Amino acid sequence: MVGMRIPPRITTLGGAAALLSVLFVQGPVTAAASTAPAVTAAAVTAPSAAAVGSVCYSALPSQAHDTLDLIEAGGPFPYDQDGTVFQNREGILPSRSSGYYHEYTVVTPGSDTRGARRIVTGEEVQEDYYTADHYESFDLVDHGC
Fold first, then answer.
1. CA 14 remoteness from chain centre
2. Cα(108)–Cα(89) distance, rounded to whole angstroms?
3. Whole-prediction pTM
4. Residue 129 DSSP class
5. Nearest to 96 by CA among 15, 22, 7, 6
6. Rounded to an integer, what distance in angstroms lies between the CA atom of residue 61 and that of residue 50?
7. What are phi and psi of 142, to 5 degrees?
8. Which residues are catalytic?
9. How many CA atoms lie within 13 A of 53 on its CB side?
10. Looking at residues 103-120, what average pLDDT do you find?
11. Phi/psi at 138 (5° precision)
12. How do residues 4-39 score in pLDDT, each as one tens digit?
């Protein structure tokens, strides 16, 4: 099909790997006797990864389900910007190389524009992030609930 964008998901490890990658960015959890906060390399390079929450697939708006179905099918997408590289300029998602993330519009009923809702995908299978506030916050979609 001409113009069809295929999501750049290259592994088959599943959503668990995506969740683990987010957790590993945070660094190890340890009990320390010191009262001074420990600064780790992970805390310096990805301080905002803690801002990524999670959301059950079943709790997403129906339009997000539609977008995820289109991504899985490889399109066609309603907007020219769908499937383009998401730069992660806000630094909220885990830091990855350029081209790792792609964004897709989640239609907002009654809006004359694309609205603020998006799905941002990573290269891992089912590494899907939902934002309802135009990249101010993200939730990793849990496809198992």
1. 14
2. 23
3. 0.67
4. E
5. 22
6. 24
7. -90, 105
8. 103, 134
9. 11
10. 94
11. -135, 150
12. 445 555 333 444 444 334 334 444 444 444 444 444
